[in-house]
């Protein structure tokens, strides 16, 4: 796991040596160690089956770890039932109580705690104001739209000031526009209220938008935990490079290593200089990762020192409004993407031979895919 | 398919007519015996024959004023209500437990729980008789209540289990995450939402006990004669139209129960659907 961050704030949640298996053979979560700091917005990101949801459910108390211990505010909670953990949760399908009104739904966690009537009323109306739904207090969940229901679920999970709020793909059922709007609203809530949020999603752009830190899960293992920009700029392995953002892959073999950099001979012909990130040594095979926006297309082979240069053939161009993509064939990879300015794709014709250039710093030598 | 204008081709029309005819026949087959009995209860004569000699309410009067009939009605109510209550508790707990139990033995346990429905009534009755007689439970209300509870519980397990199957488990998880203990969550969230299932379970349980006659024949003493038992001996010994009056009253009660249940179900749909 990548270090090199700011001084860690005290951990609110600590997963220590957590393992989880459902059938006694296959480990869904393999040896998880994870600290969640007070006040941070951390996202568990990964494909389905990667163990992120299981991790969240163990924290909520709906699943019990097979091995290891979870600490909440330095207290072991493995044997604490969910209703005594003081953790708010927002579910993907909202899980509002259909027989109760919106106001009654939000009041639920307060009535459980024997809060006085006046206090309940005050806090429920404050919560309704926060989600701008005062006029709908007496409706039932079935009468609201998906976005409205998720706002109510949010208010209900926050109204009792839990020390931690968990969100399990809360925006998965909403359409794109609404989802983006809700992302900003949740982020704003997090900033104004200073709560700790653990968020689960498989949508990398959602994770990048909202999180202070992201834990990338795959195959029951946390691949990397880092700030969104660090994950994008400094992925520790091919999985992370591939999962976060767009990525071009070129297969090759390491020829020589010189401190931070290495010389890689490409399987499809040619050689480049790359940053040595995750390679075992000279002679090892590697996958190079280059982001589409770090590549330039030049018409000829005129050289400038210290820059990688490879011949390419234009396959296609795609116009996407705010930008355009050129699909090239580079060293045997026929789906090599280069990001262009919106108008620039007109100057390229299909089948044309061009050259691409990119800096060694923007080319990462990672574990072979 | 009530819109006849959509039926264009002759074959469609024939199929539609055939459906109507067959459905009507099935309906008559099901309902005719009950309908045939009803007018007889209003007969002024002493025999169960058509045409009716005249109309009167004398058999209803006879039913209400006869100590024997009223005693058996009271017995049926006592045993029915008590065994319904008992089987509701047992059946609901069993259904709740089975709903969240993930094991390969589950079908086996479920089959065991449901076995009283499958085992022939006579066999259950004989078995219960030999089991209850040495411990003094024959000829007692308690014995009959326990026996009917055993018969009725599977119906509760089935109906409540079916309701729980459509119950969103995330709702109980949400309740727990909001701080509700399992009992609080059951009271405030689960119970209100599965209430229609519980009501139909109770209805089935009550109906099972209310028209059960075989076990009563084996186990009831003269004190515990229920309504079906009284009707049974009424037919064998002194056949009188009072039986038909009793039958009409029973049918009316059942119809009212069913209507109540349907009303409950609709009310719940409205709550969920939010129309």
Q: And the CATH topology of the largest domain in chain A? A: Rossmann fold
How large a portion of the residues of chain A is in β-strands, by DSSP E? 35-45%
- How is the main sheet of chain A built? 6 strands, mixed
CA gyration radius of chain B, whole angstroms: 23 Å
Question: How would you sum up the major sheet of chain B?
Answer: none
Chain pair with largest interface: A-B, 33 and 24 residues
How many domains of chain A?
2
Number of domains of chain B: 2
Work out the helix count of chain B: 11
Keywords (chain A): ATP-binding, Cell membrane, Hydrolase, Membrane, Nucleotide-binding, Translocase, Transport
Pfam families (chain A): ABC_tran (PF00005), TOBE_2 (PF08402)
Domain ABC transporter (chain A): 13-244
EC number (chain A): 7.6.2.11
Write a concise keyword list for the protein shown above.
heterodimer, A: 369 residues, alpha+beta, Rossmann fold, OB fold (Dihydrolipoamide Acetyltransferase, E2P), 2 domains, 6-stranded mixed β-sheet, 5-stranded mixed β-barrel, 20 strands, 23% helix, 35% strand, elongated, disordered N terminus, B: 275 residues, mainly alpha, MetI-like fold, 11 helices, 76% helix, 0% strand, membrane (chain B), transmembrane (chain B), MetI-like_sf (chain B), transmembrane helix (chain B), MetI-like (chain B)
Q: Any overview of this molecule?
A:
Chain B: It comes from Bradyrhizobium vignae. The complex is a heterodimer of chains A (369) and B (275). By secondary structure, chain A is an alpha+beta fold. Chain A contains 8 helices and 20 strands. Chain A has helices at residues 52-60, 102-112, 117-130, 146-158, 176-193, 204-210, 228-233, 238-243; strands at residues 11-21, 27-37, 41-45, 67-72, 75-76, 87-90, 164-168, 197-201, 213-218, 221-226, 248-258, 261-266, 271-276, 285-290, 296-298, 308-319, 324-330, 333-340, 353-358, 363-366. A 6-stranded mixed β-sheet of chain A has the order 6-7-8-3-9-10, with helices on both faces. A 5-stranded mixed β-barrel of chain A has the order 11-12-13-20-14. The model of chain A is unreliable at 1-5 (pLDDT under 50). Chain B is mostly helical. Chain B has 2 domains: 4-40; 61-273, MetI-like fold, CATH 1.10.3720. Chain B has helices at residues 10-40, 58-65, 67-99, 106-118, 121-132, 141-165, 169-177, 182-210, 214-219, 227-236, 242-273. Chain B is globular. The model of chain B has no long low-confidence stretch (mean pLDDT 86). Chains A and B meet through β6 and α2 of A and α7, α8 and α11 of B.
């Amino acid at each position: 796991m990548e270090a090199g961050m700011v001084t860690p704030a005290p951990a609110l949640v600590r997963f220590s040596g957590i393992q989880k298996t459902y059938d006694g053979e296959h480990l869904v979560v393999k040896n998880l160690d994870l600290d969640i700091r007070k006040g941070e917005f951390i996202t568990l990101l990964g494909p389905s089956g990667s163990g992120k949801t299981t991790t969240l459910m163990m924290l909520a108390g709906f699943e019990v770890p097979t091995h290891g211990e979870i600490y909440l505010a330095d207290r072991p909670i493995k044997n604490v039932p969910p209703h005594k953990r003081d953790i708010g949760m927002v579910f993907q399908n909202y899980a509002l109580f259909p027989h109760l009104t919106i106001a009654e739904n939000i009041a639920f966690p307060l009535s459980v705690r024997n809060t006085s009537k006046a206090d309940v009323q005050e806090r429920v109306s404050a919560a309704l104001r926060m989600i701008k739904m005062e006029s709908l207090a007496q409706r039932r969940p079935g009468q609201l739209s998906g976005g409205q229901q998720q706002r109510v679920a949010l208010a209900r999970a926050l109204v009792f000031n839990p020390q931690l709020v968990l969100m399990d793909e809360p925006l998965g059922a909403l359409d794109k526009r609404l989802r983006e709007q809700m992302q900003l609203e949740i982020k704003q809530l997090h900033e104004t209220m200073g709560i700790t949020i653990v968020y689960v999603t498989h949508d990398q752009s959602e994770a990048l938008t909202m999180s202070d830190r992201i834990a990338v899960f795959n195959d029951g293992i946390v691949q990397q935990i880092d700030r969104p920009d660090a994950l994008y700029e400094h992925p520790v392995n091919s999985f992370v490079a591939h999962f976060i953002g767009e990525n071009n892959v070129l297969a090759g073999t390491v020829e020589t290593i010189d401190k931070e950099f290495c010389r890689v001979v490409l399987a499809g012909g040619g050689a480049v200089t790359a940053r040595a990130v995750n390679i075992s040594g000279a002679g090892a095979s590697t996958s190079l990762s280059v982001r589409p926006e770090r590549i330039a297309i030049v018409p000829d082979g005129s050289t400038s020192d210290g820059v990688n240069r490879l011949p390419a053939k234009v396959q296609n161009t795609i116009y996407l409004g705010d930008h355009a993509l050129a699909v090239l064939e580079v060293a045997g990879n026929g789906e090599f993407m280069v990001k262009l300015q919106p108008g620039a794709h007109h100057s390229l014709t299909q089948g044309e031979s061009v050259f691409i250039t990119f800096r060694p710093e923007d080319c990462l030598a990672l574990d072979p895919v | 398919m009530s819109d006849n204008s959509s039926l264009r081709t002759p074959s469609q029309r024939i199929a539609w007519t055939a459906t109507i005819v067959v459905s009507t026949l099935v309906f008559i087959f099901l309902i005719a015996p009950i309908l045939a009995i009803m007018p007889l209860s209003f007969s002024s004569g002493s025999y169960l024959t058509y045409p009716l000699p005249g109309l009167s309410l004398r058999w209803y009067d006879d039913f209400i004023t006869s100590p024997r009939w009223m005693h058996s009605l009271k017995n049926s109510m006592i045993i029915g209500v008590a065994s319904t209550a008992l089987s509701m508790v047992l059946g609901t707990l069993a259904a709740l437990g089975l709903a969240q139990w993930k094991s390969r033995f589950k079908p086996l346990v479920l089959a065991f729980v449901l076995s009283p429905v499958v085992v022939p009534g006579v066999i259950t009755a004989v078995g219960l008789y030999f089991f209850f007689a040495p411990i003094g439970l024959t000829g007692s209300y308690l014995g009959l209540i326990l026996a009917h509870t055993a018969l009725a519980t599977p119906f509760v397990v089935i109906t409540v289990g079916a309701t729980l199957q459509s119950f969103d488990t995330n709702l109980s998880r949400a309740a727990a995450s909001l701080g509700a203990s399992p009992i609080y969550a059951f009271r405030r969230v689960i119970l209100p939402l599965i209430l229609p299932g519980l009501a139909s379970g109770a209805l089935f349980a009550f109906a099972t006990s209310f028209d059960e006659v075989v076990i009563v024949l084996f186990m009831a003493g003269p004190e515990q004669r229920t309504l079906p038992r009284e009707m049974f001996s009424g037919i064998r010994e002194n056949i009188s139209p009072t039986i038909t009056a009793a039958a009409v009253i029973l049918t009316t009660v059942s119809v009212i129960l069913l209507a109540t249940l349907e009303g409950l179900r609709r009310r719940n749909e409205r709550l969920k659907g939010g129309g």
